Amino acid sequence: MSRQFVTEAVMLAIYGELLLTPVPVEYMVPYTSLLELYEFISSDEPLMSNSDDDKHVKEKIRELVDYLEEPLNKKKIQKGLNVPWAKSSSILIGETARITVVNAMDTAPYGEFFDPVETELLLVSQREQVPLLTDQPELIHRIIDAAVPVTVYDIDDFQFAVESDPFSHHI
């Protein structure tokens, strides 16, 4: 059985280790997070402080977008967008990694404390009972401060998260 995480699509482009896992991993990504990739590519605003790193990350984002736009992958994503909370078929994005796009629709419950994409990440995590993976320490602090009932991992703890299974129940 694969490990599952909820994350933003941009994380898959920025952190190559997410695609090179020792065990099968499934990333659940809200559709609006995929849409953000287009904004990142077209924006003149840097994602990284170092210009070479920024250029590299934008190239990786473009590669991910191009891959997801391939006909079969695009068809899988489009099929999942017909119904709120539907999930696409899995799309392989590495030897052991795959992505499932979730048509998350509700942003109301946490709209005061989190932006719409963050809210969708939290809702997918809750709904699917899957831990959230992020590289934003301030987001983790806001999740804790708001007492949102999700398991969240910092990207620095990814290897630990892959090796542990917070939702397994042993009898």
Explain the overall architecture:
This protein is α/β, with parallel strands linked by helices and 171 residues long. The chain has helices spanning 9-14, 31-42, 51-68, 71-79, 116-128, 137-145, 158-163; strands at residues 3-6, 25-30, 91-92, 97-102, 132-134, 152-154. The chain has a four-stranded mixed sheet. A two-stranded parallel ribbon has the order 5-6. Strand 3 (91-92) and strand 4 (97-102) form a beta hairpin. Helix 2 crosses helix 3 (51-68). The radius of gyration is 16 Å and the shape is globular. 30% of the residues are buried. The model is unreliable at 167-171 (pLDDT under 50).
Provide keyphrases for this structure.
171 residues; two-stranded parallel ribbon; 6 strands; 14% strand; disordered C terminus
Spatial arrangement of strands, main beta sheet: 1-2-4-3
* Helix-strand pattern: EHEHHHEEHEHEH
**Terminal Cα span:** 18 Å
Overall form: globular
Structural class: alpha/beta
* Average pLDDT over all residues: 89
The fraction of residues assigned to DSSP E strands is 5-15%
* Contiguous helical run count: 7
Total E-strand runs: 6
- Give the fraction of residues assigned to helices: 40-55%
**Biggest pleated-sheet summary:** 4 strands, mixed
Radius of gyration: 16 Å
Low-confidence stretches: 167-171
